[in-house]
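Researcher: Predict the fold of MSTO1 protein.
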Amino acid sequence: MMHFADSLTFSGRKVVAAWAALPFPALAGSLLPDILSAQQQEMPWKLLSCWREQKGSCCFAQSVVLRGICQEKTSSCLGQPKSPLHSCESSEEVLQQFLHTQFPGAFSTSHVLQQPCDTRAPFPQFFSPLLSRRGFLLDKAQAFSSAGVESIPVLAALQSCSGLQSLLSGLCQQLQAPPAQHWSRSCMVGMEEDEFQEALEELRTLAQCYETDFGAGGSEDEADSD
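Model: Structure tokens for MSTO1 protein follow.
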């Protein structure tokens, strides 16, 4: 876990954002290259962290896991492959190639697991009737209840990205507001004023680590981490 955390939080960064496609949008029987080729314009996942998603946010490092998509041989047998994704030999290679295309320059690790996410009770039953029992997309609504969805494919990621700068800066501003400072003094037992100010300064410094032009030496650090 320490090695995993270090791979995402280099160059002074200590916070990551969580993303997930739940379920991962896929038709039953579709090959992974076809599924990801249809997602070239926009990633299928949604932000789970508590800040507003920003368009054009730069990714520094990420760890991505795809579950529930069958790991079949994906290379084209006849003729020229339709895309670079279709020329890959495995699902892991397809996902890695896709991430490098979507996030050029970012440090990306990826894993593909055949086992889907189990959604039987007590998992919340909030699924669309356009999902099959195995969580794949249907052309028309199914006859049985959405509670019949027993498993789903999932794409999830932890990502260190420039958008976190606004989250950390906003948190710092809230802590500087007079009501928040009063609350901090009364609730943080044992914290002196100078310790509180030092923590604020560390938070400001952390926010700066997520700026895309942070430090001339940042590129060298990131290159070393690769």
